Amino acid sequence: MSDPKRPATRAEEIRQAIEGDIFQGRLRPGSRLDEEGLATRFGLSRTPVREAILQLVHSGLVEKKPHQGAMVAPLDLHRMVQMFEVMSEIEGLCARFAARRMSAEEKSRLAALHDQAQASAAAGDLDNYYAINRTFHDAIHDGSHNEILREMTHSLFARLAPYRRYQLNHPGRVEASMAEHRDILAALVRSDPDGAQAAMRRHVTIQADIFAEFVSIMT
């Protein structure tokens, strides 16, 4: 499970900056990522730059081609929406199992995370809100107490992480996300599998819709 208070590594900071450049249109599909230029830009060695690029390749935002190096991949909205469709189902299943299986202690911790996220949202701290948001979701995945489902969910979650992060930039999205989390949490606390599954599926589906709209506006 991720730790919302863990400082971001240099590679993560570089990755987030490049993600921002991609989603804001400053780096277009086909743009080459020059390791030396990026190292100079961030005042760092090429080692964290290479690690950041590898993270971006794993998420699908960057691709590496023989003799060409790393380049910004085409933003395939259709594929992204398909991934969100799958994610809504498997995360919904996590929530369903979690409603049945989470202990009182696990539910209490989830409620505490929700309160922390609320404080970050109120302070306008988007970075910390997103970190806590990921931990909130991780806690539900863990709460399913199904290792196979958890592994599948975490793998796809990692690929969708950049998209889920940047849809939060849409006006009013953080407040709406908090309301969706309240619905999920309420269903989990009352041990309502149907309600938890439906609330989680709705939450993830809305993320896909908002991100697609966000990209269409920004590009």
From TrEMBL:
| Coiled coil region boundaries | none
Query: Mind telling me which InterPro entries this protein's record contains?
Result: GntR_C, TF_FadR/GntR_C, Tscrpt_reg_HTH_GntR, WH-like_DNA-bd_sf, WH_DNA-bd_sf
* DNA-binding among keywords: yes
HTH gntR-type domain location, by residue? 8-75
Q: Is rRNA processing among the key words of this record?
A: no
- Which keywords does this chain's UniProt record carry? DNA-binding, Transcription, Transcription regulation
Per its UniProt record, what Pfam families does this chain match? FCD, GntR
For this protein, the record's SUPFAM superfamilies field holds: GntR ligand-binding domain-like (SSF48008), Winged helix' DNA-binding domain (SSF46785)
| Annotated GO MF terms | DNA binding; DNA-binding transcription factor activity
Q: Which residues form the signal peptide?
A: none
Q: Which domain of life is it from?
A: Bacteria
List the CDD domains hit by this protein, alphabetically.
WHTH_GntR
The protein in question is named: Transcriptional regulator
Organism annotation: Magnetospirillum molischianum DSM 120
Q: What is the lineage of its organism?
A: Bacteria, Pseudomonadati, Pseudomonadota, Alphaproteobacteria, Rhodospirillales
